[in-house]
């Protein structure tokens, strides 16, 4: 069995990319070699940033692996620049591996575009003709694990490296993936738990702290990740959730107490009555005094 080279991007969550390739290939008894094309910043909620490696760096990685270990099976994933595509195409033409599998994914699992239209055209014209197998879809519903097609392509590569025909490798890989679906569900991270912790913290501290950074630090996550979680689960940014709590508390006190607007302002953490009034008018379209009078009038 010859080693397998995977050329793709990284996924810090391990659900896809180079990490998933290595795990899948190793689990099936293959020997994985790797060349990284892009470093991603992502969580179980999706990709935030790409850091595409220079084409020269990718070229050096490929040359080192090909010259030294001569893999006969190459699995290709994320290519995001024309320059890296040039390097990969040149390498395939030069080293002529026995099998080339391309996992042609254009969108992330969250529906974000990974490649430009111009790059897709170049890949179709220049890379696809060099491939033994192009995986453009792997039948699965929306609840299937993140990186499913990626792992399927990796499994095909392993079975090919063991001497299977292309058809048999595909059949064996599908059996393997179906087993994985039964055994595991998608990695969800701590999103639901974190959201509940955030809501509990806000309900307790919103009168003292209205700054998102306070809650992010309290929960030991970045403000960006906290925002991703709240937007995915509730459709609202963390600040909007905090403000909702404040507005409801202000309305409650205006409706049920005789406290002055200034007293309510200080009790809810505002620096002045003017600050509360500005905040309230922005969110409710009228001043606290007008809101109180209208409520009493309707009462």
Q: How would you describe the overall organization of this protein?
A:
The chain is an alpha/beta fold and 299 residues long. The strands form 2 sheets. The chain has a 5-stranded parallel β-sheet, with helices on both faces. Strands 3-4 form a two-stranded antiparallel ribbon. The longest helix is centred in the last third of the chain and has 19 residues. The termini are far apart.
Topology of helices and strands:
Layout: E1 4-8, H1 17-27, E2 32-36, E3 38-43, E4 46-52, H2 55-69, E5 73-76, H3 82-95, E6 99-103, H4 117-127, E7 133-135, H5 148-161, H6 166-183, H7 191-205, H8 212-219, H9 223-234, H10 238-256, H11 261-267, H12 273-284, H13 288-298
Parallel strand pairs: 1-2, 1-5, 5-6, 6-7
Antiparallel strand pairs: 3-4
Q: How many helical elements?
A: 13
Shape: elongated
Helix content: 55-70%
Number of separate strands: 7
Largest sheet: 5 strands, parallel
SSE string, helix = H, strand = E?
EHEEEHEHEHEHHHHHHHHH
Give unreliable regions as ranges: 139-144
Rg from alpha-carbon coordinates:
27 Å
Nearest-integer average pLDDT: 86
* Structural class by helix and strand composition: alpha/beta
| Beta-strand share of residues | 5-15%
The strand order across the widest sheet is 2-1-5-6-7
Question: What distance separates the N and C termini?
Answer: 83 Å
